[in-house]
Description:
Largest sheet: 6 strands, mixed
Helix content: 25-40%
Amino acid sequence: xxxxxxxxxxxxxxxxxxxxxxxxxxxxxxxxxxxxxxxxxxxxxxxxxxxxxxxxxxxxxxxxxxxxxxxxxxxxxxxxxxxxxxxxxxxxxxxxxxxxxxxxxxxxxxxxxxxxxxxxxxxxxxxxxxxxxxxxxxxxxxxxxxxxxxxxxxxxxxxxxxxxxxxxxxxxxxxxxxxxxxxxxxxxxxxxxxxxxxxxxxxxxxxxxxxxxxxxxxxxxxxxxxxxxxxxxxxxxxxxxxxxxxxxxxxxxxxxxxxxxxxxxxxxxxxxxxxxxxxxxxxxxxxxxxxxxxxxxxxxxxxxxxxxxxxxxxxxxxxxxxxxxxxxxxxxxxxxxxxxxxxxxxxxxxxxxxxxxxxxxxxxxxx
Length: 367
C-alpha cells in the first residue's frame, strides 16, 4: 500500500526552508567579514608609551613626529650626595614651561634648541660663554648663582623641570636638590646622560634627542645632532693619521703649583678627546688623585690645564710649571705642551665640548 504524500512533502519543505536559512546566515557572516576588512577602524586617541608598549629611552613620538603626552622618559635618580645613579622614570604630561639648568652649557644648549624662553634659572657660570649663543639671548636667563646653586633658590623659581649635571643633584649645600626630593615637590628632573660614568658622545646625542621629545622640538634636536655628528666625523678624519698622544689633566692648587686629576671617571670627555688622538695616561687609576711622582713616571706628552672663572691666572701657572725642576723629565714640560682648557666646555655636559675639541686639536697639532 502506498504511504500518504503529505508528510513527505511537509518534511521536504521544512528541509528546503532550513537550507535556505542556513545559506542566508552564511552569506551574512561573509558580508560582515568583508565590511570589517574594508572599513577604517574607529578613531582613538594615542596612548602613552606605557599603555601601548614598554617605554624606550627615546620616548614615543607620534606618526607625525610630534610628542605624544604623557611621555615617559627613562632617566635616573642618585643618592642625596649626587652619586650612584639608579634608573628612574620621569613622566611628562606636557612640555615643561619653567626650567632650571644647573650648568651654563646646558642652558646654552636649550637656547640653541629654541627653548630659551622656558629657562627661569641657570647656575655654574664657571667658564667662557658659548660663542654660538648670542650674549643677548643668554642675558635673558636669570642667574641663580655664579657657582653651584643650592636647592632653595632653585625651588624658589617654581620650576617644573630641573636639568643638568648628575653630580649636582644632591641635597648638600652645593647641590640643587636630589632627584627624589625635587620629584616629591612635583618638580620633574632630567639628569644628563653625558654626565654619568661610562658616558660617551652618544650619551650627549641621546640627551639632545630626549630633550627634543620632552619639549616637542624633535626636528630641531635631530638637526642639531646631525651637525654634531658631522663635526665629530670631521675631527676624526682630520687627525686620523696623527700619532696618539698621552695626556694628563692638571689643576692649579691656588699658589701656582700643580695637582693631578686621574680623570679616570671622565669617560665622556675622553671619548671626545679620542677624536683628536688624545688618550688619558691615567685611565686605569681607580681614584681621582694622582701624585706628582706618578705624573713624572708616566711622562705624558700633553698636559691639559683646567681653567674656570675665578681660578688662578693660567699664565702664571704655566710659567711656574715650566720652571719647576721636579717636572723637567715630563715630555709635556720639555716641549712646552700645556694647553688651557675651559672647565665649562668639558665639565658642563653640554655640546660646547665639540668646539673645545676642535680648538684643542688645532693647538696640539698646529692644524
